[in-house]
């Protein structure tokens, strides 16, 4: 399965509990221009995979 983009939803306050995500945001995110980050209050980290039209296809 191939996706055209992704949206990473995460709460800024919960990031301290997920050092892998912090590392990705600080060091790796620029390598993936189709990944957007959305900060949502009190949301656990989740990756929303998008199709060619930008529509939600799968949540990880």
TrEMBL record:
GO cellular component: endoplasmic reticulum lumen
UniProt keyword annotation of Membrane present: no
UniProt cross-references to Pfam families, sorted A to Z: Sep15_SelM (PF08806)
Keywords assigned: Endoplasmic reticulum, Selenocysteine, Signal
Gene3D superfamilies: Sep15/SelM thioredoxin-like domain, active-site redox motif (3.40.30.50)
Cellular location(s): Endoplasmic reticulum lumen
Ranges of residues in domain Selenoprotein F/M: 6-60
GO MF annotation terms: oxidoreductase activity
Classification via InterPro entries: Sep15/SelM_sf (IPR038219), Sep15_SelM (IPR039992), Sep15_SelM_dom (IPR014912), Thioredoxin-like_sf (IPR036249)
Primary localization class, coarse: endoplasmic reticulum
Cross-referenced PANTHER family: SELENOPROTEIN F (PTHR13077)
Entry protein name: Selenoprotein F
Annotated organism of origin: Ricinus communis
